[in-house]
Amino acid sequence: MAKFTSAVILAAGNGTRFGGNVKKQFIDVLGVPCIARTVMAFEKCPLIDEIVLVGDESAISPALSGYSFKKITKIVAGGETRQDSALLGFDSISDKAKYVAIHDGARCLITPEMIEDTVHAAYKYRAAASAHKSSDTVKICDENGLVKETTDRDRIWLVQTPQIFNTDVYRVSAYMAKRDRVVVTDDCMLCERLGFDVKMVECGRENIKLTTPDDLMLCEAIIKYRTEQKEQNK
Predict the structure, then answer these.
(1) 21 DSSP 8-state letter
(2) CA-CA distance, 231 to 117, in Å (whole number)?
(3) What is the pLDDT of residue 64?
(4) In whole numbers, what is the pLDDT of the chain averaged over residues?
(5) Which of 52, 79, 84, 234 is most exposed by smallest CB count within 10 Å?
(6) CA distances from residue 5 to 79, 80, 86 in whole angstroms, order as listed
(7) b/e map of 35-64 (b: 16 or more CB within 10 Å)?
(8) Beta-strand (E) ranges in 181-232?
(9) Which helix H or strand E contains 6, and what residues bound it?
(10) Rounded-to-integer distance, Cα 104 and Cα 12, Å
(11) Which residues have a Cβ under 8 Å from the Cβ of 62 and sit 6 or more positions away?
């Protein structure tokens, strides 16, 4: 059974590693702004009831103009860090929300199907994240790049977004981290530190995040490939 699920899409990052004058979440990807492609996927997913965008409204609104988005309810200013921005977005979702999906605006290759699979897993486990199981051997090294440990790759997952949580689980996890001044690099870590289980959902390797200019070339190649596949399957 569907439960009211809100999406918080983060578009407040500086994108310093991408370079150039345009932040990565607003860069054109085959003629469509990255953030617009991202929002489209959540707009089309039937399990998403509302979308809250976090970032500079003066930059977000022009990037979304010309597209019809009916699920966007708010655009709120971001915080000093990604962690702060996610909490500001969470605090702005509907009181009806039972689940919240936190997603990076620069991860524009997400599909409605990937979102739906991850939402269903979250309904079952209370916390779930899109991810891809590693096909590479992973080495743990010291600061000099010397190997200290080789992990079992069968247990290694490369986590992506969206990361989706029961709102009560996310609330206590986020605010406990804020109280304890704990800094995390993704939202799953908030829940992990309190002992909540987080289910990884296989979404393949295409759900990449725009971080460097090389990622843009790969992103556009994936979109072209998807378009070709659709044409062939008609």
Answers:
(1) S
(2) 24
(3) 96
(4) 95
(5) 234
(6) 23, 26, 15
(7) bbbbbbbbbebebbbbbbbbbeeebbeebb
(8) 199-202
(9) strand 5-10
(10) 9
(11) none
Residue at 209: amino acid letter:
K
pLDDT digits (tens, 9 = 90+) for 74-87: 999 999 999 999 99
Q: Residue 78: count other Cβ atoms within 10 Å of its Cβ.
A: 19
Query: Exposed (0-12), middle (13-18) or buried (19+): which is 111, by Cβ within 10 Å?
Result: middle
For residue 147, list its beta bridge partners.
141
pLDDT attached to residue 15: 56
CA distances from 150 to 11, 132, 136, 141, 144 (A): 35, 19, 11, 9, 16
For the chain, how many residues are written? 234
3-state secondary structure of 86: helix
Over the stretch 31-83, which tens digit does the pLDDT of each residue have? 999 999 999 999 999 999 999 999 999 999 999 998 999 999 999 999 999 99
